[in-house]
Amino acid sequence: MSEKIFFLTGCASGIGKHLAQTLSAAGQQVIATDINAEGLPPASATLTPRQLDVRDADRWAALIEEAVGTWGRIDALVNVAAFLNPGTITAMSTEDIHRHMDVNAKGVMLGMHSVIPHMIAAGGGHVINISSLAGLAPVPGIALYSASKHAVRAISLAAAIELEPHGIAVTVICPDAVQTPMLDIQKPHDETALTFSAPRILSVEDVERAVRVALRTRRLEIALPRYRGWLTKLSGALPGLGHRLSHIFRRQGLRKLKRLREAAE
Known about the structure:
Distance between the termini: 44 Å
Structural class: alpha/beta
Shape: globular
Radius of gyration: 18 Å
Low-confidence stretches: none
């Protein structure tokens, strides 16, 4: 892959940090951002760390202008930043409602709104948004997160049609549970059992490979793993079936949670 200019969010931990480090190590120019500036990878010849609250439209605009002013373009925007507070909808505060939507959904939209005019001016580009299997079908126990990730998928698929004439691809990646700090905070909560129903928890390397596939093929959507993606889409398309299946998968998830907790003791 020839040198490209990447703008990434959510780079203080998990998927975003791994992507920033691996892309930078591969010789790509990376602007790595996060609200937690202390957690960002250190600056190098190929990595520029910057603090960004994705809810702040003015900060988005300033950083995009800085990047374009420095390198002349942004080839790829990768929206990774996300927020999750596990629990049932009745246990959530109004602040939880706002934060899930503001970070996970509106943060992605603000980033696209800031970057896309520059990509149009440059004659092309690529937007990669990290959604979730919880964006393909509703997941109890993380209902607000699930709703916000549905929004990420919707804006991605709609924007892909709008931006195709401008040479801009949009890819939405929908991974199953990934071993990150966001997954760890769900482990004490039985209500998140459906999250843990998969036979295997994904790694950040699994998501990295999906990003590389997206960059190479410009595919519209990638679900990880593929068979769980189809199963989740079926559950989302047929809510009655999905409702019944959720009880089966919840029992599997509870057994997985029990093993994970025992292993941590």
